[in-house]
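Hi C.,

You asked whether I'd gotten around to modeling the 369-residue construct. I have! Everything is below, sequence then structure, no commentary in between.
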Amino acid sequence: MIIGVPKEIKDHEGRVSATPAAVEAFVKSGHKVYVEKTAGIQSGFSDEEYQKAGAILTDTAEEVWTKSELIYKVKEPLESEYKYFREGLILFTYLHLASAKDLTEKLMESKTVGIAFETVQLGHTLPLLRPMSEIAGRMAVQEGARYLTSTEGGKGILIEGVPGVAPAHVVILGAGTVGTAAARVAVGMGARVTVLDVNIERLGELLGIFSNTIETRYSNNHNIADAVESADLVISTVLIPGHKTPQLISEEMVKKMDKGSVIVDVAIDQGGSTDLTVGHATSHTDPVFVAHDVIHYAVGNIPGAVPRTSSQALSNATTKYALAIANLGWKEAAKKYPELYLGINVQDGKIRYEGVAEALNLPYEKLEI
């Protein structure tokens, strides 16, 4: 199979899907790999390393897209890339279609096969989303701490506090991978940490991990409102695989927060989890907006800011499946790895993932393979 690795074009997106080691694995399996020049530079991989691994370098993204049967990338295609869609092309990437109706319709019209990293599900885990969730959770606290400083418009407090001065109150909605990673960093920085989730068993696990260094509360509207009102930094991590994210933080809750408090909406990729961030995604170039005197950080590609770490972690997780698709074709690969079947969001002009269809109010048709 011919595999294409285009350079990412989303704002400040420095990640690359395939490391030189991944390219070498493809080539050794008999596949041809096109890599757009400088695609891996921000991740620390030179064009020479890709050539040494056996890749064919191209001058333009168009060459990669038009010559390849499998496009292996990091982020969802942007509008300028839609023209490359065509029947039979396999697109393996983060898609986040529940909040992207236009992209979904373009994939359907072209009959491109869209396989989404974020809905590949093994048991109760999301193996291709997990490494980026780990990074996003850690960075959410890091970025939140930055915007709490007065120089960034925040209320001017230190996360850890000092002797005689209380630490910041960090509230984390969701106790999954992102929430746990955020809690680990916030605890390490010395914050007062409250974690909310509907899964009591998971909250118990977190208490086992963090002992008495965190507070846990059942996630309902009353408890969220109470916790958010007293928070200096809120990190919202709620995720329903493949579905649009529910809005758990209302505008009224935000109005009750102190001036200069910060909300980091890690769930923005799936549509946003607050009334004010829905439809208001930000970018690394312009990462925040202020509403009701509260700073909102809603960057859709948080791990893209640390590409040297992120690209290696992502390639470690996804290369196995990309190689299976190349070796077997997407149908046989999905039979061999049933978790990959759940990643197939769009195929033959039809939506194949029920959560996407529900979110976009479009027909769903189960894929039989």
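If it helps when you're writing up: The chain has a mean pLDDT of 96.

Thanks,
B.
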